[in-house]
Amino acid sequence: MFGKSTLIEAIAGKNRGLLATEPEKAAILIAIAKLEERNPTSRPVEAGELLEGDWRLLYTTSSGLLNIDRFPLFKLGQIYQSIRVKTSSVYNIAEIYGLPYLEGLVSVAAGFEPLSERRVQVKFKRSILGLQRLVSYQSPASFIQQIEQGQKFTAIDFALNSSEQQGWLDITYLDSDLRIGRGNEGSVFVLARV
User: Fold this and answer.
1) CA 171 to CA 162: how far, in whole Å?
2) Cys staple from 167: which of 3, 38, 149, 184, with CB 3.0 to 4.6 Å?
3) Which burial class, exposed, middle or buried, applies to 103 when counting CB atoms under 10 A from its CB (0-12, 13-18, 19+)?
4) Which of 58, 104, 63 is nearest to 81 (CA)?
């Protein structure tokens, strides 16, 4: 029987997918599909109380995220996705580590709009790339609070054209502490509530 524990065991030690072999990736995708079949939330987009909050990425097939780890001298730290239902906002934050005092972050702020009971349209609005020290980064929640208050950062901080920078995401599994999504580029995301 495939359940959450089967999936969690399959992705353990895989560094969000960076260390997974091809056979392991195939087994993980099977475990994800089996769990999606047993989604306890039939209309996840409408389940705001379950969606709301800060989530940590456990596993992904997204080469865009995993390729951040390929830069010389830098390693991919934790990746978070924070959802603020009241403002229809989503924030992606990737922590980057490497040389001492040069810890960085890559963040994208977006808005989302429900398209169906499980699909949201995501329009990217702002990107922030900088050193954690210079943006006073402490945690995803405090950083997002600064963004929502309109703070400008000592970083590469720029607006994105949301008509060009957009995509969709299907929420295929959602419970109180685990969320699975599938994006328009074919990527799978497994996240745990922080």
Assistant:
1) 21
2) 184
3) middle
4) 58
Distance CA 20, CA 133 (A): 32
Please state, in angstroms and as integers, the Cα–Cα distance from residue 89 to each residue in 18, 59, 103, 126, following that order: 28, 22, 26, 11
Distance CA 68, CA 150 (A): 27
What percent of the chain is modeled with pLDDT above 70? 98
**Distance in angstroms (rounded) separating the CA atoms of residues 33 and 25:** 12
Phi-psi region of 147 (alpha: psi -120 to 50; beta: other; left: phi over 0): alpha
Specify the CATH class of 43-193 in words. Answer: mainly beta
Residue 25, C-beta contacts closer than 8 angstroms, at least 6 positions apart: 17, 61
User: What angle in degrees, to the nearest 10, is found between the helix axes of 4-11 and 22-36?
Assistant: 160
Write out pLDDT tens, residues 34-65: 999 999 999 999 999 999 999 999 999 998 88
Domain definitions of the chain by residue range: 43-193
